[in-house]
TrEMBL record:
Name the UniProt record assigns to this protein: SnoaL-like domain-containing protein
Highest taxon of source: Bacteria
Source organism: Saccharopolyspora karakumensis
Domain (SnoaL-like): residue spans on this chain: 12-119, 153-279
Cited Gene3D superfamilies: 3.10.450.50
Amino acid sequence: MSSSDRGKALIKSYLDAVGSLAVDDIAPLFHVDGRLDIPYAPDGIPRTIEGQVAIDDFYQALPQMATPLNFSDYRIWALEEDGEYVAEYRSDSSFKATGAAYRNNYVARVTVRDDKIVRFAEYFDPIPLVEALGGTVTPAPMAAGPVADAGPSDRGAIEDVLNKYAIAYDENDMTTMADCFTQDAVMSLRVQDGDLVGPFEGRDAIVKLMRDALASQTDQRRHIVTNAVIRSADAAAVSVESYLTLISVDGAKLTVLSTARYEDRLVHDGGAWRFSKRHVQLDLPY
């Protein structure tokens, strides 16, 4: 069996063990200094668990909280970099304290070395988890006022801007790209906890950044935007967070390059919603 296939089998063993709550089988799959990251875990659940012993303690408590997670529909890809993988899967469970059903979809980035998991980073929509635990999520009030060519609601119009930006980049449509931003918009980027890239100030500077990035590519990119949540709103502006899954298509090969969180502020400008500020927080370099 190749090292790539062994890595995929290791990840499947982990998902099988967690999904069936075979908790004694989970920690041994990790390196002694392994790390479990759950960046979007709600308050009360640790977002980083380091070391085989701490990972074992975390999972030993899970059967008291939940029924088996019943992970299914596994899809596991080996990336170009040796020992790096991406997995997708879904759960179907319930929480004992509330009796509420819990179903979710997941994406994980996994690092494997010497047939052990060094890092398992799991990403999911936290809202179903909060609700299954008995919490509530109250949407922010929508901004008031007319929206030109926006569809049935402000939320739809705002999500249109998120998606329009993604498609404009992927299709090298700089006219549409420019229309997504106000004249004085600001954009910045950061990879993990590295240095801030930017800010790029003004619509023209942002479009130049995108045009230069496209010129350096030889592949086809697909920006998949999901999990948009409006964090705050007033009559003229909204703050929105969403997730990005960045995919590269090169010939017959498809690769997940990175995931990210968009942190946006949109304003009502000239009869339409446009970005006045956009920050891209990348989970991994690519």
